[in-house]
Amino acid sequence: MFKAILIEKDDAGYRSHLTELDEAQLPEGDVTVKVEYSTLNYKDGLAITGKGPVVRRFPMVPGVDLAGVVEDSSHPDFRIGERVVLNGWGVGEVHWGGLAERARLKGEWLIKPPAAFSARQTMEIGTAGYTAMLCVMALEKHGVRPEHGEILVTGAAGGVGSVAVALLARLGYTVVAASGRPASAGYLKTLGASTVIDRTEFNAPGKPLARERWAGAVDTVGSHTLANVCASTRYRGVVAACGLAQGMDLPATVAPFILRGVTLAGIDSVFCPLAERELAWQRLARDLDPALLAGITREIGLSEAIAVAGELLAGTIQGRVVVDVSR
Questions:
Q1: How far apart are alpha carbons 96 and 33 in whole angstroms?
Q2: Angle at 296 (CA atoms; ends 232, 238), nearest 5 degrees
Q3: Cα(189)–Cα(65) distance, rounded to whole angstroms?
Q4: Same domain for 217 and 259?
Q5: Element spanning 17, H or E
Q6: pLDDT by residue (tens digit) across 79-128?
Q7: Residue 188 to residues 29, 129, 178, 191, 270: CA-CA distances in angstroms?
Q8: Considering the domain boundaries, does residue 77 fall inside one?
Q9: Is 81 exposed, middle or buried (0-12, 13-18, 19+ CB in 10 A)?
Q10: Can the peptide bond before residue 290 be classed as cis, meaning omega within 30 degrees of 0?
């Protein structure tokens, strides 16, 4: 038997609860993992609370992330005792995920984490940090360099935003952090932001084109915020879009793209090809200061995950949430 968060939906309604499951109930897969740590991401918050249509099969164990040790494997690339990390691949949505003491997965979804990180540190980074690295790589791929000007990060005090600020600053970029939390200004400057601005200048309908400000941007918010970020991006600038905290809509015009040559780069971390995700983790080991991780992380036990999911959606959590599934 093992502990897990279980989401059920039936005639009695939608509910999430901490329970014990039998290992025989685990879904199909060729690698069984003893989970050590998981995380809470925005998507997990939506799944646990039922406030978004994330879960597509019931019952479901949520958790899009996990780090642990292989207990059993018929996959040729993974042996018993090896450390593994999982991010995405529909886990926690259509396949049981990481908010449990055990997981059975497809080996093709797993990677071996960099030796520089402990299991806890890989989840301090988690899908949020890995997504942030993909955003940084997209800016680099499209030729955005530190000398080109300021880089805006929206939702900067959240999980993706916090790591994006830290990565960009360490790589020499001048980072402007947009946040709706005035109390987070000191925190964001500690991560490397040169300036902290209020998100309210982006979150209402704006002009098709605004004053050119940003050489590049990482947007975690979507909706009017993303539209306004694109409208104020400099000629041939790049916006990496990876989130929808404000909304899934994009009330924009084509003006920034056809008059200024702005590139809108979509970032998908869920089904990102293996080679690219392995490169992202290698870059994290090289470019992210591990000393910052503890300062952006709150650790909770599995028994606290349901309550904290509500806090996450309310926007009251700063940085990352790591879940120790053993408590």
A1: 12
A2: 20
A3: 28
A4: yes
A5: strand 13-21
A6: 999 999 999 999 999 999 999 999 999 999 999 999 999 999 999 999 99
A7: 41, 15, 10, 5, 27
A8: yes
A9: exposed
A10: no
Please check whether residues 183 and 308 belong to one and the same domain. Answer: no
124-144 per-position pLDDT tens digit: 999 999 999 999 999 999 999
Q: Are 40 and 81 members of one domain?
A: yes
Domain shared by 6 and 108, yes or no: yes
Query: Tokens standing for 294?
Result: 């503890």
User: By the 8 A CB rule, do 132 and 240 touch?
Assistant: no
Phi, psi of 247 (to 5 degrees): 165, 165
Sign (positive or negative) of CA dihedral 28, 29, 33, 36: negative
- Contact 29/105 with Cβ under 8 angstroms? yes
Scanning the chain, the segments in alpha helix (DSSP H) are 42-49, 119-141, 159-170, 185-191, 223-231, 255-259, 274-287, 305-313
* C-alpha of 198 from chain center: 22
Q: What is the pTM of this model?
A: 0.93
The CATH number of residue 178's host domain is 3.40.50.720
Longest dimension (CA), the chain: 60
| Number of other CB atoms surrounding residue 115 within 10 Å | 8
Kindly state whether residue 120 falls inside one of the protein's structural domains. no
Q: For residue 154, how far is the Cα from the chain centroid?
A: 14
Q: Name the helix (H) or strand (E) containing 84.
A: strand 83-87
Pick from 123, 118, 86, 81: nearest CA to 105: 86
The torsion angles phi and psi of 276, rounded to 5 degrees, stand at -70, -40
Q: Name the residue with higher pLDDT: 294 or 239.
A: 239
pLDDT tens string 168-205 = 999 999 999 999 888 899 999 999 999 999 999 999 99
Rounded to an integer, what distance in angstroms lies between the CA atom of residue 183 and that of residue 113?
A: 34
301 and 215 share a domain? no
Residue numbers of the domain that contains 100: 2-112+293-324
What is the tens place of the pLDDT at every residue in 274-318?
999 999 999 999 999 988 888 889 999 999 999 999 999 888 888
Query: 263 forms bridges with which residues in the sheet?
Result: 238
